[in-house]
């Protein structure tokens, strides 16, 4: 769908320079998704892997973040191998709903959604759990994954942007009472960058 160089605005790598590769295609259907134009994979041009990697190499940062849509709808084996051969760390953000996790990953951000159950295979692979908090019941939804994850998996709660005024104070209180969690803010939106 698009590719751009910016700062990672969320989660464990917040503030780091990153080349984002946003792939078209998603069948999860979050009503609050801020990139609904990514859902239809056929609405976006097809690029060769060499073209994608050449675009990434134009910038000095060597962290590539594959996102979507739902990026695991695609076989990412060759893309991640080519990126890593070119010196990139490969990160992904996924809802974990796909049957297979393809690709070679330095970091997996698992961001489950209530609208479609994840494949349990993602649990042992996740380096980071990031749950979007839209309403009060999302705290219990977030906690439901913790027993299934590795002990070193980082835990993040992030308010859905349109609900920040309402939910951010609740997340602050929750993290104060459950310190195994951290807050993830969409810092790129505060900075007004992509």
| Overall tally of domains | 1
CATH architectural name: Alpha-Beta Barrel
Number of helices: 5
Helix content: 10-25%
CATH topology: TIM Barrel
Radius of gyration: 16 Å
- CATH hierarchy class name: Alpha Beta
Instruction: Show unreliable segments.
Output: none
- Structural class category: alpha/beta
How much of the sequence lies in strands comes to 15-25%
Largest sheet, order of strands side by side? Answer: 1-2-3-4-5-6-7-8
Whole-number mean pLDDT: 95
Describe the structure.
By secondary structure, the protein is an alpha/beta fold. It has one domain: TIM Barrel. Helices cover about 20% and strands about 20% of the residues. It has helices at about 50-55, 75-85, 135-145, 165-175, 185-190; strands at about 1-5, 15-20, 65, 90-95, 105-110, 130-135, 155-160, 180-185. The protein has an eight-stranded mixed β-sheet with strand order 1-2-3-4-5-6-7-8. Strand 2 (about 15-20), helix 1 and strand 3 form a beta-alpha-beta unit. The chain starts with a strand and ends with a helix. InterPro entries: 7-CO-7-deazaguanine_synth-like, Aldolase_TIM, rSAM, rSAM_sf. This is 7-carboxy-7-deazaguanine synthase. Belongs to the radical SAM superfamily. 7-carboxy-7-deazaguanine synthase family. Its EC number is 4.3.99.3.
């Amino acid at each position: 769908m698009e590719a751009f160089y910016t700062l990672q605005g969320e989660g464990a790598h917040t503030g780091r320079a990153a080349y984002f590769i946003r792939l078209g295609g998603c069948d999860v259907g979050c009503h609050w998704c801020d990139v609904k134009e990514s859902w239809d994979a056929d609405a976006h041009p097809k690029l060769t892997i060499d073209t994608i990697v050449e675009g990434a190499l134009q910038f000095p940062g060597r962290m590539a973040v594959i996102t979507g849509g739902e990026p695991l709808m695609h076989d990412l084996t060759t893309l991640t191998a080519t990126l890593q051969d070119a010196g990139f760390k490969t990160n992904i953000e996924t809802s974990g709903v796909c049957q297979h996790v393809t690709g070679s990953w330095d970091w997996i951000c698992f961001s489950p959604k209530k609208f479609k159950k994840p494949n349990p295979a993602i649990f042992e692979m996740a380096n980071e759990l990031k749950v979007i908090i839209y309403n009060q019941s999302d705290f219990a939804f977030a906690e439901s994954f913790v027993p299934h994850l590795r002990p070193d998996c980082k835990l993040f709660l992030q308010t859905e942007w349109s609900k920040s005024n309402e939910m951010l104070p609740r997340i602050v209180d929750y993290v104060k009472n459950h310190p195994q969690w951290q807050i993830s803010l969409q810092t790129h939106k505060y900075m007004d960058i992509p």
